[in-house]
Each structure stands twice: as C-alpha cells, then as structure tokens.
C-alpha cells in the first residue's frame, strides 16, 4: 500500500478523535508530559506544517515546526494543516527526496510519512485517553507504527534524549495486543 494512503488514514483517525474534543477540555492533561490537550493538538498542527515545509525543501528552519495555531476551532486548524500536508506529499518525487525532519535529521519522504503515521496513531490514543473516549485505530496502521517505533530512540540513554521523540520504553508483555505494545515502545501505559 502507498504510504500516503496509510498517512491519510492515520491523519483522519486522529482527526476523528480531535472532533470529539470540547473547547472546555483543552486544559486537560495528556499522557504526554508537560502537554495539555491544547498543547498536544497544537503540536499535531505544528508538525503537519513542519512536514509541509520539509516537503517544500525547507531545511534549517526549526520554527517551521512550531507554527501551528488552533484559534477557536482546533478541529478546523488540524484539518487544514492535515490537508496541506497531504497536498505537499502528493507528488511521487517527494517520497524519495531527503527531508529534514525537525532536529532528528534527514530522511526520505516515505520514511518521514511513516514517522508521521506513528505520531498520529500514538497521539490519537493520547487525545482519546485525555477525554475518556474509546480508541480503535485500524490494525494495519498500528502494525505499521509498531514497526517504525521499534527504531525510534528511546531516550533511556541521556545521549539519545535530544533525538528521542517519545518517552522512554515501558515494558509490555510480548503477547499483548499490537496497540498496547506500540504504546509501551513510546512510553505509554495502556
């Protein structure tokens, strides 16, 4: 399957959870240390805009990854940024292009999208946990994210922390459900 299709579905799955957030819930804590629900959704909007900048050849502007604003409609802000990202990756050439992804380094566009799928699946769970709604992403999205998460620096080693996108690993049983194993790899307690 084309990674862009997986990414569109992961983005839509996260959008479906964000659609359930009420404005009075934006100050709720999340499983992400130091982020409220507002901060987490803003992170997703900002990351989408950062991926757009990367796909368009921006290489050394870390501020591009912090440009998201929610205004008074977080879902509209998220959907607008997700649509811009889908358009930025529509051309096949972007999948092979080397893109600078935040401070993490340069990756082929296809790998960048795999990282984004992982981010959407994990943060969809975070949002769902914060507002107390069920979360059941498609198994193929979870399995894809699980494969990517296995290669993400864990942050357990102090030398890795600057490159770690998530919290240190939490040990989860090998026979646990794929989503639970993914969550453990990114420092969540399912």
Automatic annotation (TrEMBL):
Mycothiol-dependent maleylpyruvate isomerase metal-binding domain segment(s): 10-128
Pfam family, one: MDMPI_N
A GO term for molecular function: metal ion binding
Name under which the protein is recorded: TIGR03086 family protein
Organism: Planotetraspora silvatica
């Amino acid at each position: 399957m084309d990674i862009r299709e997986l990414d569109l579905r992961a983005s839509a799955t996260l959008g479906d959870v964000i659609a359930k957030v009420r404005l009075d819930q934006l100050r709720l804590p999340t499983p992400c240390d130091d982020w409220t629900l507002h901060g987490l959704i803003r992170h997703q909007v900002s990351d989408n805009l950062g991926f757009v900048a990367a796909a368009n050849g921006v290489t050394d502007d870390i501020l591009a990854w912090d440009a998201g604003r929610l205004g008074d409609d977080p879902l509209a802000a998220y959907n607008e940024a997700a649509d811009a990202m889908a358009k930025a990756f529509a051309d096949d050439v972007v999948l092979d292009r080397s893109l600078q992804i935040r401070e993490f380094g340069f990756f082929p566009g296809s790998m960048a999208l795999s990282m984004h799928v992982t981010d959407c699946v994990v943060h969809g769970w975070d949002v769902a946990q914060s507002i107390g709604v069920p979360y059941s992403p498609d198994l193929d999205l979870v399995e894809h994210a699980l494969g990517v998460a296995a290669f993400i620096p864990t942050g357990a080693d102090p030398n890795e922390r600057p490159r770690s996108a998530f919290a240190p690993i939490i040990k989860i049983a090998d026979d646990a459900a794929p989503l639970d194993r993914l969550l453990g790899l990114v420092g969540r307690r399912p």
